[in-house]
Sequence to fold (173 residues):
Amino acid sequence: LSAPGGISLVVPQPNINATVAQNILLSVEYSCQGVATVEWKHVSSWGTTSIAEWRSGNYVNISTVYKDRVTAFENGSMELRNVGMRDAGYYFVTVTEEHGTNAYGTITVNVYEIIYEDLHFVAVLFAFLAAVSAILICFMWLCNKSLHVFQKKTTQKLTASTTEEIELETIEC
Fold:
């Protein structure tokens, strides 16, 4: 974009897709006749936040909210480290020449979460079902064992009582 007074501002990547905890470069390049001031603002559903402002070669003023996460570059670009969901939105850059002429640029940033919760839920569910099935298998084995023991005792009692009946019948005869 070229503004009157000789300021030009180029935004080579107006849309940026990032994942949580990634670093992104809000890349711009400007040129102007004199000394320029670069200002970055973030606009999202949570409101408008001033991020940084600097004058070429003189000073850099970074908001306390972004202090540890922003690096400002001489060409007007800005690196934002460790992005989160709240960093999604529109980033507006304003380049103001010392004579008061401005150039504006916008970058849209989309931040996506890597969903590990679904995988975590499936893994926990699978482990729970495996544990329950192991317990049920052990319970079935115990039931089967006790059934065999019960059948053996019953068979022995029947055999013993049948033997006694036969002996009693033999004695009576």
Residues 8-112 form a domain with the Immunoglobulin-like fold (CATH 2.60.40.10). The chain has a mean pLDDT of 87. The helical segments are 117-172. The radius of gyration is 39 Å.
